[in-house]
């Protein structure tokens, strides 16, 4: 990390269905990526900028950056001094349960805007972090649920269902399946297009339209996701790198940091206690 930067990514037994990140970044750049969980980030200092939905958005103190699962986005400093924030990554099932109990949202709940001006909810995010660090599980869980319920009521709604209606969208989804199944030894773009009976440029356009990034970028993101699962189950970084198709451990480390925010070893240490007790 750059001098002056610090980050901790962890999961606590107090909140087994929520990952946490607390970080101070200056020159950090997150590449295009997605998360399987929701992202609720409260900036306390500086400005975070991120690409989302074709535009650049800015999260400042008192605001929340809100990202739905499987939504492509980036992240970088919006001012020279960077930004400091606390982030919660609640699992989709947890958010769905809270939505069902506290809102009238029907279907899959989600956030309707990527940045929300909500100092009250931002304070809740920081309070959840403090409660976790103090080992106060009851407070952490209570505050987290109240916070998510508030965000869904104020900034939430049902996510639209994504149904492939064109041949290009169907080709993109079939291509994704092939890449998932052959992640460690994927075909070239030309080979993939040929297998699917379409053209290389047509597949490239369709994949970008469906998933917000070209196949090679999506594949890197998917490899990091799968590597996370392997690390959670006790595999070493070297084993995970080989299994998902990275050239070596250093390649995994570089891409992992650009997506998760910390190196694989720090990530694994932050979640090891939870996985040993659950």
Give a structural overview.
This is AraC family transcriptional regulator. Residues 173-270 form the HTH araC/xylS-type domain. It holds the Pfam family AraC_binding. Keywords: DNA-binding, Transcription, Transcription regulation. This protein is of the alpha+beta class. It has helices at 92-102, 119-133, 137-155, 167-181, 189-196, 200-211, 215-232, 237-244, 249-260, 264-277; strands spanning 6-11, 18-25, 29-33, 39-46, 48-52, 55-59, 63-67, 73-77, 83-90, 109-111, 115-117, 156-158. The chain has 2 domains: 6-158, Jelly Rolls (Sandwich), CATH 2.60.120.280; 167-277, Homeodomain-like (Arc Repressor Mutant, subunit A). The longest helix has 19 residues, at 137-155. It is globular, with a radius of gyration of 19 Å. The model has no long low-confidence stretch (mean pLDDT 94).
Key descriptive features of the protein:
278 residues; alpha+beta; Jelly Rolls; Arc Repressor Mutant, subunit A; 2 domains; six-stranded antiparallel sheet; four-stranded antiparallel sheet; 10 helices
Low-confidence stretches: none
N/C terminus separation: 31 Å
- Number of helical runs? 10
Largest sheet: 6 strands, antiparallel
Instruction: Give me the strand/helix succession.
Output: EEEEEEEEEHEEHHEHHHHHHH
């Amino acid at each position: 990390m750059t001098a002056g930067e610090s980050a901790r990514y962890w999961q606590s037994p107090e909140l087994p269905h929520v990952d946490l990140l607390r970080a101070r970044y200056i020159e950090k750049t997150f590449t295009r990526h997605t998360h399987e969980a929701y992202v609720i980030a409260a900036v306390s200092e500086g400005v975070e900028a991120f690409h989302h939905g074709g535009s650049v958005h800015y999260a400042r103190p008192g605001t929340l950056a809100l990202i739905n699962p499987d939504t492509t986005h980036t992240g970088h400093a919006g001012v020279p001094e960077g930004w400091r924030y606390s982030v919660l990554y609640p699992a989709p099932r947890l958010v769905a349960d809270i939505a069902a109990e506290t809102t009238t949202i029907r279907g899959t709940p989600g956030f309707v805007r990527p940045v929300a001006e909500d100092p009250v909810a931002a304070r809740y995010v920081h309070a959840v972090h403090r409660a976790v660090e103090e080992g106060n599980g009851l407070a952490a869980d209570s505050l987290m649920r109240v916070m998510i319920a508030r965000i869904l009521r104020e900034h939430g709604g049902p996510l639209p269902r994504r149904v492939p209606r064109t041949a290009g969208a169907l080709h993109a989804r079939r291509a994704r399946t092939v890449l998932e199944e052959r992640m460690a030894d994927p075909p070239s773009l030309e080979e993939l297009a040929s297998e699917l009976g379409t053209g290389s440029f047509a597949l490239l356009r369709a994949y970008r339209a469906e998933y917000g990034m070209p196949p090679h970028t999506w594949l890197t993101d998917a490899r990091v996701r799968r590597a996370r699962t392997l690390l959670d189950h006790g595999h070493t970084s070297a084993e995970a790198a080989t299994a998902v198709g990275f050239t070596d451990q250093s390649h995994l480390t570089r891409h992992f940091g650009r997506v998760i925010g910390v190196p694989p070893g720090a990530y694994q240490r932050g979640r090891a206690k939870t996985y040993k007790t659950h």
